[in-house]
Queue: 4 jobs
Job 1
Amino acid sequence: MFRTYADAEIQIGEAFGSDCHLWRFIEHGLHQPWFYVTLAKLTKDGKYRDMLMLSDVVSLESLVFSQSEFVNVEKIQLVSPGYFNNSGSWLMEPLLSISKGEFISGDCYYIYRVFGGGGYISVGATCISDRIESSEVIVFEGGGND
């Protein structure tokens, strides 16, 4: 979902390690929701934060379930295109929770609840308004807008 190009790479040698690459920009060509995640990490030198850009809810779900006492998802923002959020333009909204459910057909859907009382139901990258037929399981539940 995110693309990088060799001419966008910042040449830093091995200051951050041989497996680390820094980029001046990345490209996002798909018009579907993605997530901006604040990840808190606890080390012997203290607590610091990294920001991750995750391209899909399955990757986010995996990250949330892999948290530990040393790595914690602090905040998630849903970044969605205009057709998805009905605003006509891209929005970045603080995410309060994600629930996962299943239709009678067996297809999964996700419900994104955002700060301010809004919410979206999606199957894949499509925002839908179909009637939900079965119970939901919480994937992520965060706090309010800091």
Note: The chain has two domains: 1-30, 31-141.
Job 2
Amino acid sequence: MSDFDTRSTTERSIINFSKFNLDGKVRLGRYSYKHVHGELETHSHDGMMEICYCDKGMQVYEVNGKEYQIRGGDIFITFPNEPHGTARHPEEKGTLYWLIVQIPEKERFLHYDAEESSVFINELMGIKERHFKGTDVMKKMLDQLFTLHEEPEHQPVHKLQTLNLISNFLLMVIEYSQKNVGREQSDRISEIKNFIDDNIYQSLPIELLAKLLNMSDSHFKSWFKKEFGMPPVDYILRTRVEEAKKLLQLKPGESVTTIAFKLNFSSSQYFATVFKKYTGTSPAEFKQRNLKS
């Protein structure tokens, strides 16, 4: 299914830059969800590349049968005509931007001449990794595009500013797609992720996690949010919920209360509140649905 989303709601904004004569060539969207939404159905964009920037939270996308888990600060790309969706996963709580740009076959790209357009398109289509770490400068550029679009009085210079922001954002995406994550940084991420996974049934205070990486509590929280796209408490709760989903499926005889206490929740009521926030359904409903399937 080919899709070019045009629906804006109180939680999501989509602009088509028609006031700058870019409608059909560029579209920018942003959602900020306080709770999970339904899954994003598999779709594609005819002749258009989509670049997602995850600001907060976590999201799963599927392309060509492979699932990708993106977190805050990550870039995720789908190329023209590639079917993609969230693979039966809901659209998660968090903030995410998407920029969709037409990749022309013959005409010029944005405001560039024929030769420059060819170079730009070759660089974009030559990106080898569809999922990589970005930078918060990218978010600032996207926010500036929204601000320019919302200006009540359209000035001729606004179109130049818009084209430059789009170009600079795309050039930064090309640049960051070629960067390698440092070995030490990668090891730290793996170490803390594995420790949380291995000890998800235990209490995981920030002091313990910070000490594991020889950081102060404040430094650890800042580092974790930058690398994982969310505070450590949020990540731990998400991980507990994922483990709870497995237990509810694999051990239908266990009560919701038993699973809540196993996973270190203070009460079954708090567990149910957290579970629904990240899945959109209660533990009891989730369990019942899986018993029927």
Note: The CA atoms of residues 152 and 163 lie 18 Å apart.
Job 3
Amino acid sequence: MPAPDKHGVGARIAYCRSVMRPKLSQRQLADAANVSLGAIRKIERGERGVSDAMLDAIADALGVDPARLLADRAPAHTRVRDALPALSAALATYDLPDDGPFRPNRELHTAVVEAARWRLAAQYTQIARKLPDLLIELARAYHSTLAEHRTELACLLVQAYRSADAVAYKFGAHDLSARLIELMRWAVPVSGDPLLAASVAYVRTETFFAARAYAAGLRVLEQAVDAAPAPTSPPTIAARGALHMRAAVIAGRAGHAAAAVSHLDEARALAGLVAEDVYYGTAFGPDSVKIHEVSVAVSLGAEHVSRALDIADQWQPPQDLPAERRSGFYIDLARAQLWSGLADDAFESLKVARHIAPQHTREHPWVREDAATLRRLKRADSETLTNFAEWCSAT
């Protein structure tokens, strides 16, 4: 029998299981992951290994990305990057897929919803592993269906492309991200859903962020606001409000303070009319707007960051917000704190972001920039800071 590994995958699984709310017993975890109780016990004691498929199942049952459980395996960011070519290959035949099998629409819908959940939870490894095959299967289904019956499949394609785009954009594959956005724009007219079109306009802003074409991105978003359905129901209110949130941030990056404030005011007013929730794949509500208020303050520059600090002094994102959004709050806050001379606070915020969504934090360019700055400012300081800077590849 191999010597128990007290610091490996099993120990991480045991730790995650023990801090769940409510806490999971080993039997509950085994049942949720469809793994035997004996296997879970041996894995947690470090007495047996874990296959990739079993690791994914256990991670899914725990509600964490497999990256949180990795020890001596390939780093999660390497696994994601290695999967990007497969994602590109899946897109290459979007209009001429092979003749393989595909599941009924209801099962495809379940798979697409699961991928959206991974995106919101910043579980990018899951997306990178599963989306290429799902996109191929959706393309088969779409092109095997009569044109007049493709509406539902077009909706599913848009949502699946969006989940795949989260990986491409966050991991710096901006050409692939732009391709995915163009495919969303290709499929959305077939869906006939104006709210889905609004969500695609929201995502399209990534191309302008990547190109630093902020003024152009603001124009496109303002056109999308004008084209969005009237805000007469929670989904239509959220669609318009999300566009205003996004417009506020890109206006800040463009240096248009008045436009940023105006869009933020519009978003805040609309958020007051709905409960915080995920609408058409985008979190929107009072908490999301508050997070964007911090982002706008940082986007406008150092002279505005006091507003971000004021918000953080009185409020923190609630635990039920999507992990990607919560980690983004602390990444933005860290930059505001760093610009305000609060180096220790900035590092604490980065560590909180890492705990919430490790992959999102690791791949964020601001994290690398700010960790490198902190390391220069505190050369003689703790090994923890050095380890963090090396973890996120700060130079």
Note: Residues 124-143 form the longest helix (20 residues).
Job 4
Amino acid sequence: MQKEDLHGYVPAIATPFNDKGEIMDDAFVELFEFLIGRGATTICIAGDNGESWALSAAERGRLVRLAKDIAKGRVKVMMGISAPTIDASLAYVRAAEDNGADVLLSMPQTYVLKASEAELYARFDKVTAATDLPLVLYNSPRRMGFSLTIDQTETLLNSHNIIGIKESQRDFFYHTHLLNRLGDRMSVMTGPCHYILPNFALGAKGFIATGPEFTDLMPSDMAAVGAGAPDDRWRQAHYQLTVLYELLMGTATWPASFKAALNLIGLPAGVPRDPVLPATQADIDKIKRAFDLLGISYS
């Protein structure tokens, strides 16, 4: 997979668990087909939406194999390998390779560590030495405890098999400078969904974001709409994406609200896996009120 292949709508699929915490394969198939129908070009297994922290290497590999069997070449399959320890990341790399993943997604060492610059480079040196698969960086300051600088991103790009970045920095100055400096050398994929349309105008190639599952505007049309002059369709889509981002990120513990929203529109997202609890009825009522405001149909 080359950087030119990383573009458009790249959703991180939810992992559907039942009440016992078991993965529901049939539900996963339905979610996967729904995302293809929305225009996905690549689908990410074991992203934040997929509760990566709750998935073993074996489960990630199983989901990648299932995804490849469903896709039959229609979309590429990405797999997340972020972890606090290098041993865990490399176990995820092996599961991805063994089951046919096309590309890997990785933050620096995550969740409990704030990596120094030397530690940051050492982590990616070890990951890329272990695999020939291409890598997409994931810059998520909220989850990493720090943000990659543009200089650090460029250094990693210069010396590793990196084809893109999921940029979840919530600073528009940062997005602007990243796209201007590196947008022609790597595929910059927007993270926060309320930045999707503006970033297309600045040169982003696509988005790995939560929210386009529910919008009136098809995700596959967002590149063309975002790169054009803002009109009523642009403004409506941007408003829906903004409200959805605020709603889903501000309700319950992630991704309980996302799963509840998917369930409301008739998709079998199941419930979160322990320790995350399902959305409460109050949370679901809040989602319904936002859907009413946005004109999104639900059951």
Note: The first strand starts at residue 8 and ends at 9.
